[in-house]
Amino acid sequence: MKQIKFITVLLLFATMVFNITACSSDNEDGTKEDNSIIGKWKVMGEGHTDTYEIIEYKSNGTFEYFYTKDSYSETGKYKIESDKLYLIWDEDDVQDWDIYKIHELNSISLIIEGYDIKGNLKGYNESFQRIK
């Protein structure tokens, strides 16, 4: 009887391990999907038909916004907590965080929606496409 319990527990454990590893973030081709915000993103969507606006999120919690048409850039800090992206610009006189709800973040796209001063969502999304 002890041996049957041991085999049952062993099979249950093996099934759990198999299910956990089968649910990882591997793509069908065996590559890992990068759901990290770190990298360069091009601003997309209505009103952004050119590729002049790029934002790069770095692993040290900083970002740099580039407007390549005029060789203009700004820097700041960012953090992600749950489904929110917080940005604070270095050049701002007022050190308030801009807050965005992350609707989508995967290896190729980032879609966010800003909050207004009262804490309500603004009602329009900002889309980005990963370029690096």
Briefly summarize what is shown:
The protein is α+β, with helices and mostly antiparallel strands and 132 residues long.
Care to describe what's here?
It comes from Dysgonomonas mossii. Keywords: Signal. This is Lipocalin-like domain-containing protein. With 132 residues, the protein is of the alpha+beta class. It has a domain at 39-130: Lipocalin (Beta Barrel), CATH 2.40.128.280. Helix content is 16%, strand content 44%. It contains one helix and eight strands, in the order αββββββββ. The protein has one helix at residues 2-22, and strands at 39-44, 53-57, 62-67, 72-81, 84-89, 98-105, 109-115, 121-130. An eight-stranded antiparallel barrel has the order 1-2-3-4-5-6-7-8. The longest helix is centred in the N-terminal third of the chain and has 21 residues, at 2-22. Mean pLDDT is 78; it is low at 8-33.
What is this structure's SSE topology?
Layout: H1 2-22, E1 39-44, E2 53-57, E3 62-67, E4 72-81, E5 84-89, E6 98-105, E7 109-115, E8 121-130
Antiparallel strand pairs: 1-2, 1-8, 2-3, 3-4, 4-5, 5-6, 6-7, 7-8
Summed over residues and divided by their number, the pLDDT gives a mean of 78
The helix content, as a percent range, equals 10-25%
Shape by Cα distribution: globular
Could you tell me the number of beta strands? Answer: 8
- Please tell me the CATH architecture of the domain at 39-130 by its name: Beta Barrel
SSE string, helix = H, strand = E? HEEEEEEEE
The Cα radius of gyration reads 21 Å
State the helix count. Answer: 1
End-to-end separation: 58 Å
Name of the top-level CATH class of the domain at 39-130: Mainly Beta
Structural class: alpha+beta
In terms of DSSP E residues, the strand content is 35-45%
Main beta sheet: strand number and arrangement? 8 strands, antiparallel, barrel
Strands side by side in the biggest sheet: 1-2-3-4-5-6-7-8
CATH fold name of the domain at 39-130, please? Lipocalin
Report the uncertain regions. 8-33
Keywords: Signal
Signal peptide: 1-22
Protein name: Lipocalin-like domain-containing protein
Organism: Dysgonomonas mossii
